[in-house]
Amino acid sequence: MWEPQQPSVRMVTRLLLLTSALLSTCQAAESPALFTSVTLTLEPSNAVSQGTNVTVRCQALVSSSGFLNRKYTIYKDNTVVYTESITTAEDLIYSLRMARVANTGKYKCKVNIPGKELSSSSEKLTVTGLQTPVLSVDKRVFSEGEEVTVGCKAPGESGAIVFYFYKDSKELYEERVDANHVETRLRFNNAGDHRLHCDYRVILLTDSVPSNASNNVVVTVKELFITPVISVRPHGSMIIEGDNLDISCSVSGNLQNSSGLKVFLSKGPTLLSSGQSKANHSMRALAEHSGEFQCSLEVGNVVKRATENVRITELFSQPVLTMYPTEVFEREKITLTCKSTNYSSDRISASDVKYSIYKDNYTLTPGSFNGIYVVPGVVPNSSGIYSCKADARMISKYSAKLPVQAKVLVSKPEITAIGRVIVGKPFQVRCHSDRGSLPIEYTLWKKYSEVNSTTVQQPHHQAIFPVTVQHYSDMQDYKCEARNNPKIDTVVSNKLNTTVIVPLSNPGLSVVPDLLEVTEGNEMYLICGVEGSPPVTFKWYRRGNVQPLCTTTSTQSSASHHIKGVGNEHSGTYYCEAINYANMVRSQPVTVDVKMATWKKGLIVACCLLVVALLALACVLRYNSKRDAAPPFDGMEGRATNGTRDSVASLPAGISNRSSYSLPATV
């Protein structure tokens, strides 16, 4: 079974602390305060066109000694339009987005603090320009006497608006609404075409009709014969830091019938003291206390003020922290000097001022010293926010913060070529270091000669040099060096190493086998060769043809086009082209005459011999046929017996005694 537990001592202690804090807050909230002024401004101006964003700013200057709750109220034409309570000294902002004519009017701000209130003067805002109204009708054609719904809208407008409807430019109907649109039903009795339109008017207070002025009544305001008095001790200009400063605020004059009188002693927005008839404040004088102190007397709504300007001489000036050298690199020694240049010799000497130096709010000097401190070079990171403090007679002053950003030494640069490098054509070389504080000076060298130099000042800039090489081996001669510290030697890159493209030259086309040996039926190789950097694209052409016979890309300096089964149709003039990233070259043309095949030649010879043989044979046969057709001899000398004639043939004398003669046969 659950039983209620008794509160522990720790819980009771916490409750007591919380109650004490709440009571302290309430007491602080009721701390006295003094109004200085309340002002209202209109931004960007008091007269704007419609659609402009307008800011109504209310600023209250209040002197108080602690927590203060402020209630702001914005009025337009004496009507509350906005209210807000805040606890800070920030201005109240009331925004009018896309201001319209309805926002025209007089604006005023009132600020309430516990027991007091103060209002600003009025500022008039004038907004000009109205939106064009839009008329709508639920039907365009209707019968005589029929009711029609008609609407009129003023886009974006606000406030009290009177809408007017017109038929054929004559006012037909009006209606006042608190909206930017209105709808009504109208009846049309006259037949025919009619033109309808509408307009509107925004009702403003300034459009009201003023009356005549009333009668004048003279009134007299009697001055209160009491005045505030402020006194400062010690008096005069010889107030030095560290002196005890006593300031009092009192009332001079007849205090009778001065119930509710209060006095306030303040400096700027800070309320130093308050009382019924006197207020005192004591402090240890510091230079920042110099300025105007104010004694204010308040009776009801009457406030009178007296001021005293107090000038406090510095016991010693604000220290100034300097460094040497003004620019340092990592692991370099830094000398920091903290000094107050001026001091009051009547009170202290220069040796009485002791110093301390801080880095990122940590003390570098455990004890006070003479103001000079050396940051050793072995410190890995000397970058940071440095400051120093000067102390004398329990007064401490701090220097302005000194940001130190140690520079980074430049790293070894890299040298690279941008884009393709072609012999004989200009290209760009880039030098770049991955680390190093700007500015960095880059220098390009070719062997032992300086080519060019440039200084990189901005992070997005680069060191780029134009270069032209005449031979591919020249690339190894280039280096670049970088420097960003004149006290340290430069760092040098490696040699420039990149692919160099040599332009093609000396193109040639050769034929295998030899031109005199190209015969039908054999293979033929057209070999295209060049000098230059691969890859190379080779193209073979036959004169008379626009398109190439063959195209191929090779990493070698030559390539071939193979033709199988060469025929007479392959006779002609050939040439080749070679292309790389640098240029294109063309060979001299080569004429190929395809010879007849050997077997064809043998066949032709055989055919010719056969024809000759046939002709010879034909001649022999013919001759023989003629011989066989001659008349035979009858044994009688000189007499033929062919039966055709009877004459006696005369024979040669050498053979006349022979009885017969055989003629030799000649083939």
From TrEMBL:
The keyword rRNA-binding does not apply. The keyword Transmembrane applies. GO terms for biological process: cell surface receptor signaling pathway; cell-cell adhesion via plasma-membrane adhesion molecules; immune response. One of its GO terms (molecular function) is transmembrane signaling receptor activity. It comes from the Eukaryota. Keywords: Disulfide bond, Glycoprotein, Membrane, Signal, Transmembrane, Transmembrane helix. Pfam families: Ig_2, Ig_3, Ig_C17orf99. Residues 632-651 are annotated as: Disordered. The chain crosses the membrane at residues 602-621. Residues 1-28 form the signal peptide. Gene3D superfamilies: Immunoglobulins. InterPro entries: Ig-like_dom (IPR007110), Ig-like_dom_sf (IPR036179), Ig-like_fold (IPR013783), Ig_Fc_receptor (IPR050488), Ig_sub (IPR003599), Ig_sub2 (IPR003598), IL-40-like_Ig (IPR040878). Residues 32-126, 228-311, 319-399, 413-493, 507-593 form the Ig-like domain. GO terms for cellular component: external side of plasma membrane. This is Platelet endothelial cell adhesion molecule. The lineage of its organism: Eukaryota, Metazoa, Chordata, Craniata, Vertebrata.
